[in-house]
Amino acid sequence: MDGDSKERVRLVDLIIPVSAVVYAIYYVASVRDFPFQAQITGLLLGSLLGLLCTIFFIRFIWQARRSGIRIGWIDLIGKPSIGLKRLIFAGLILLSTFAVPWGGFTLTTFVFLVASFHLLGVRPLTRVLVTAATAAIAGWLFFIVLLGARFPRGPFELLMSYWI
Amino acid sequence: MDLTSIDTLSALFLHALGYWWIMIPAVLIGIVMGAIPGFAAHNTIIILLPLTLAFDVETALVFMTALYCASHLGGGIPAILLNIPGTGGAAATTLDGYAMTKKGEAAKALMLCFVASVIGGLLSAVVTLFALPVLAKAGYYIHSVEMVVIMLFGLALIAAIAADDMLKGLIAGGFGLLLGSMGADHIYAAPRGTFGFLELFDGVPLVPALVGLFAISEAIVMIEQRFVVTDGSTNKTVSWGETLRNFAFAISRWWQITWTSLLGLLIGILPGAGASIAAFVAYQQSRLYSKNPELYGKGHPDGVVAPESANNGVTTGTMVPLLAIGVPGGSTAAVMMIVLQYHGFPFGPRLFVESPMLAYGVIMAMVVSYILMLFMIFPMARYMSRVTVVPTNYLVPIIVAFSLVGAFVPRAFIFDMGIAFAFGILGYIARKTGYHVAAILIGIILGPLIERSFMLAMRISNNDPMVMFSSNIGNVLWVCLILTLAVPPLIERRRKRAAAASGATAG
Questions:
Q1: B297–chain A nearest CA distance, Å
Q2: pLDDT at residue B89 above 50?
Q3: How much of chain B exceeds pLDDT 90, in percent?
Q4: Chain A contacts in chain B segment 194-253 (CB below 8 A)
Q5: Is B465 on the interface with A (CB under 8 A)?
Q6: Taking CB atoms and an 8 Å cut-off, how many pairs form between chains A and B?
Q7: Which of A42, A76, A110 is the endpoint of a domain?
Q8: Using DSSP, how many helices (H) and how many strands (E) does chain B show?
Q9: In A, which residues are within 8 Å of B175 by CB distance?
Q10: Does B504 touch chain A (CB under 8 A)?
Q11: CA distances from B144 to B182, B327, B460, B467 (A)
């Protein structure tokens, strides 16, 4: 059965070509009212991508008719225990990018690291807190104090600016 | 200045060596920053610009060149150990470097990377020193048509890299090209495919795309492993004896290092064609002419040597048009041009007339920087492979947190961190479904470059597409390109036939 399922084509393999075709259509639509010279790249690349994806879809259908089809969800996100961790971790990354303007670099990095370490199984909590605090402060010293990266200032940076 | 005289050369060398005090910190900063995804040399130099402007012009240039050379060496470290290139030029190093790490050969791969970088960079710097006036002329013969064909070589690589499924490789590359063509068009400044975001008006920012496609996607993949490599015990610290044997092995690839670094030097001379293109071209050419092309992508030493020597060959190459004709060959050279301008120095031919010591001194500073790096590679190659035995539950969050900083720094837009996240998800899906992320990245890099050269050629020729076949150099390059695409499948077919025939005879 396993060997059989390996040969079956996976629906998840279509994500990239379908996304490419959707973006190509959007790209061409976004230039439809422009002069020809502004359209030419979109038309050339869109046609090329459309041709390649059409060949891929034909091959996919041909292989699916020959050996069957499966979703391939586990191949994409992993077993349920890992898959859930992955989704939460991706959510944490997204949340941290939204939080930076309010929390500033150091505090956001600290909270992100604490949550991620805990999610990925680092124990005990003291080790999580110490490692996260060390990494966040090292990052602050290196990127902000030493290199002067223009990150939004948060409570920690404002507090430290009184001392430094 | 007579460079054929030993006296002049030794005076130049000793003069450059006198700046060791600024070179050593510059090399250390360069290696560290090169190893952090997103912190390319020009970003670091821009961040440190107030410091460099405070120096006198010679110290500033020595500092910048040393940092620039070292950052290319540093970029290979995470590419080999973590499958995350520190700089775009190291993206091709991941293909075989990480495969070697997975086989427990991280220390060997690092030594190959360091030796190829140092010897390749040193060699191209020495060649540049003597051939500067001749090399400078190469830039005059490369116009928009030739640039289009050269960059199409990059597209040929996409097929070569994704050899397991060429169609998937081409789709990934085509998708990358279209994403790379996002933003304002070159003539009417009309925004195309930007989803209405002003931040994408200038196109897809390369650094966040690199960070997302490689660092974030790899971090999300890594969650399922306990260590970076499945068996953490295979990459323990090697002995000094083993380190020396790895060094001797790396030196034994001297011919590979020589020709790929010179290829990098030639590509570096072309304005706009940077380390990423050089590294991929060198990788593909090395594979094309190899006796064992089937080993590439599976941890072949030459697959590490070729891109690393080429991307270090580029470092001196980008200086050639700046020094010889006053046109910066890359972004770091552009920053150096600003520093020269700030100090009131001329660039181009006048620099050689008015300040020859400064002009040749920049290249000699590169020679000295590479010599200094030679002494640093032994301890680095011995101990750095230990990174792979750090448990991933510590490593993954730290990689993501610091890579996002790299995505933010070049433009200081929080939006770019979101871009890195989006490309991280795209890269993750690509990795899990067999579409090579390097193919997407090379498409994104080449997209705007091909478009600019293509549009320029079309405008010059009043929209006559035959202009693409109007130049002799261009036509030779077209033939080479067709051969590059056609020869590997033919060789492969012949090998399969030979294997089948020998199998039948044995049976």
A1: 21
A2: yes
A3: 22
A4: 194, 216, 220, 223-224
A5: no
A6: 175
A7: A76
A8: 24, 2
A9: 16, 19-20, 23, 49
A10: no
A11: 20, 15, 10, 10
What are the start-end ranges of the H helices in B326-436? 331-342, 349-354, 356-383, 392-408, 415-433
A61 and A20 in a common domain:
yes
**Is B488 inside any structural domain?**
no
What pLDDT score does B255 carry?
Answer: 93
| B1 domain-assigned | no
Task: Read off the pLDDT of each residue in B267-288 and give the average, rounded to a whole number.
Answer: 80
Domain count along chain B: 1
Structure tokens at B480: 């080479």
Nearest CB to B178; choose among A49, A117, A120:
A49
The reply to whether A19 and A66 lie within a common domain is yes
The verdict on B452 touching A (C-beta cutoff 8 Å) is no
Q: A82 and A97 share a domain?
A: yes
Q: What is the CA radius of gyration of chain A?
A: 24
Do residues A87 and A69 share a domain?
no
Sorted by sequence, the CB contacts under 8 Å of residue B429 that are 6+ apart come out as A12, A15, A16, A76, B435
b vs e for B74-110, b when ≥16 Cβ sit within 10 Å of the residue's Cβ? Answer: bbbbbbbbbbbbbbbbbbbbbbbbbbbbbebbbbbbb
For range B100-125, the mean pLDDT: 91
Q: What is the pLDDT of residues B329-364, one digit of tens each?
A: 666 777 777 777 777 777 666 777 777 788 888 889
> What is the structure's pLDDT at B4?
66
pLDDT value at residue B272? 58
Q: Which two tokens stand for residue B23?
A: 């070179």
How much is the average pLDDT of A17-38? 91
Cβ–Cβ of A34/B190 closer than 8 Å?
A: yes
For residue B174, give the nearest of A49, A117, A143 by CB distance.
Answer: A49
Q: What chain A residue is nearest to B39 in terms of C-alpha separation?
A: A143
* B435 Cα to chain A: minimum distance (Å): 8
B405 touches A at CB < 8 Å: yes
| Binary contact (A93, B223; C-beta < 8 A) | no
A1: confidence class by pLDDT, cuts 50, 70, 90: very low
Q: pLDDT-based confidence at A2, cuts 50/70/90?
A: very low
Percent of chain A with pLDDT over 70: 96
Asked if residue A118 and residue A67 are part of one domain, the reply reads no
* Same domain flag for A71 and A83: no
B197-202: list long-range contacts, CB under 8 Å, 24+ apart.
B197/B415, B199/B413, B199/B415, B199/B416, B199/B419
Residue B249's nearest CA partner among B138, B116, B144 is B116
pTM for this model (two decimals): 0.79
| Dist. CA B420–CA B414, nearest whole Å | 10
Point out the least confidently predicted range of A46-60, A66-80, B3-17: B3-17
Contacts of B451 in chain A (CB under 8 A): 41
Q: Report, as an integer, the average pLDDT of B185-198.
A: 87
In angstroms, the first-to-last Cα distance of chain A is 66
Q: Which residues of B touch A19 (CB under 8 A)?
A: 175, 426
Residue B502 covered by a domain: no
Q: Among residues 143-202 of chain B, which lie with CB inside 8 Å of chain A?
A: 167-168, 170-172, 174-175, 177-179, 181-182, 185, 187-188, 190-194
Give the domain range for residue A97: 78-163
Query: Based on the domain organization, do A86 and A65 belong to the same domain?
Result: no
Do residues A69 and A84 share a domain? no
Q: What is the DSSP letter of A91?
A: H
Q: Is residue B85 part of a domain?
A: yes
Q: Tell me which chain A residues have a C-beta less than 8 angstroms from the C-beta of B192.
A: 27, 30-31, 34, 38, 41-42
